[in-house]
Amino acid sequence: MDETEHLRALAESTETINEISVGSMSITCEEPTETKDRTWEIGDVPLGDPIAEWAERLLMLHAPYPGDDLEKEESFSGQRFVVYKTSETHHVILDGAQQLEDDLLVPSSLLRNPMFQLGDWYTTHIARRFELPKHLVRLMHNGEIMADPVSMKISEILNNEENFPGTNSPKCFTCERTVFGDDVTFEIMDCDLSFRIWATEAYLSNPKLNVTKWYAQRLKKAYQTMHSIMVDKEHEWEDNHLRLL
What we know:
The protein is of the alpha+beta class. The chain contains seven helices and eight strands; from the N terminus they run αββαβββααααβββα. It has helices at residues 3-13, 50-62, 108-111, 118-129, 134-139, 149-160, 211-243; strands at 19-22, 25-28, 81-85, 90-95, 104-107, 173-180, 183-190, 195-200. The strands form three sheets. It has a three-stranded antiparallel sheet with strand order 3-4-5. A hairpin with a 4-residue loop joins strand 7 (183-190) and strand 8. The protein is elongated and about 85 Å long.
């Protein structure tokens, strides 16, 4: 019998002991099972720039604008507008249907304002090129506001993830924007687990932020902290009762 066959025979003949007796107590030794970190099952979805994405949508829905050719498909195309962040303070608006001499810059602070009426603002800007009367320009306004695209995007991403613990009921995640003085904070709530976390507006301005994995890591850390507290309390309870024996 060669060495390989000898080791195989030895393994098959070895008895596995699942229970060890220590005095009057018995300790059951469970077979080790392979575990997988749930955070590695979470999808990779970057946050992107929700403000720019929502701005493109609002501008498209507000069309047509002064000077638009109503017979051209570009005037009503869903790809007409491109909005992106060009600096820490401004976004730029590119219009595929209007031949603007210069790129139009809009302060990012305006786009972050939930009450900002982007479509009306853009209409007024374009109307100046044609020197339209103000009362006609006002008739072209629809009063639609920016609302809160960051909260909407975060809620959408988290609700689309299927590998979070809990029942994963539809729309169990909510995100709300709160303002304290000059500080803007977002509260993310998991209604299934009654778990919530907070993030600053500056933190959520990172387009590369993986929202799902970030949330999973925060949830895992909270579970580990809670487990550590419970173990400490259990040891404290045991110590107190042992002193009474």
